[in-house]
């Protein structure tokens, strides 16, 4: 705890505007840059979180509503199984057949799973055209998508903040080294006796 307190006091002492004669104007500019970038990050973080959560959450809720109305469960009958070639080798696929709301028959190959003997029944999801689709977007998926989007947005903001600080810090360091070089060129002949 004592070490943490000493570190905090060191940061406060560094950021505090002082009258130290060894502190150059470029050092004061550096202190102001740190303070402004820190305040900007603290100000933008809640705005980014709120905006991202609102946009992604609203899109997820819209997808939930639309898919809940457009996708329906259907009962499919297993027609048979057959091996299907993939890049990793052979996998078994199951052929299923179902009828849509207009009583039109559809057939599709799906991955095997569960009871896949001919004549067995499987529950599937179909879209408005009667084609095979995935289950509707759930509220849990909306929440997970929103949390992930907020995390990514904060990470991008932190990376932008870090990149901005690094660019400014390098420029100030170049300026600081240039000033030291000029001062040394003025002082070196007096200290070393060389021209």
Describe this structure as you would to a colleague.
The chain is an alpha+beta fold. The protein folds into 2 domains: 101 residues, no CATH class; 62 residues. It has a 5-stranded antiparallel beta sheet with strand order 3-2-1-4-5, covered by helices on one side. A hairpin with a 2-residue loop joins strand 1 and strand 2. The chain is elongated, with a radius of gyration of 33 Å.
In brief:
This protein has 195 residues and is α+β, with helices and mostly antiparallel strands. The protein is built from 3 helices and 5 strands, in the order H-H-E-E-E-E-E-H. The protein has 2 domains: 20-66 and 139-192, no CATH class; 72-133.
What does the secondary structure layout of this molecule look like, with pairings?
Blueprint: H1 2-15, H2 25-70, E1 72-86, E2 89-99, E3 105-111, E4 121-126, E5 132-133, H3 139-192
Antiparallel strand pairs: 1-2, 1-4, 2-3, 4-5
Helix pairs in contact: 2-3
């Amino acid at each position: 705890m004592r070490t943490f307190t000493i570190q905090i006091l060191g940061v406060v002492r560094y950021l505090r505007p002082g009258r130290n004669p060894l502190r150059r104007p470029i050092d004061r500019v550096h202190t102001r840059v740190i303070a402004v970038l820190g305040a900007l990050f603290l100000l933008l973080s809640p705005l980014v979180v709120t905006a991202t959560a609102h946009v992604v959450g609203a899109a997820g809720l819209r997808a939930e509503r639309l898919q809940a109305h457009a996708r329906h469960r259907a009962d499919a009958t297993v027609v048979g199984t057959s091996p299907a070639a993939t890049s990793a080798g052979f996998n078994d696929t199951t052929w299923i057949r179902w009828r849509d709301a207009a009583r039109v028959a559809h057939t599709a190959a799906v991955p095997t799973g569960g009871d896949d003997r001919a004549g067995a029944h499987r529950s599937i999801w179909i879209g408005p055209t009667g084609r095979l689709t995935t289950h509707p977007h759930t509220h849990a998926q909306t929440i997970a998508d929103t949390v992930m989007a907020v995390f990514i947005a904060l990470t991008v903001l932190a990376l932008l903040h870090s990149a901005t600080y690094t660019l400014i810090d390098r420029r100030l360091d170049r300026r600081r080294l240039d000033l030291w070089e000029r001062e040394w060129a003025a002082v070196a002949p007096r200290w070393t006796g060389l021209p």
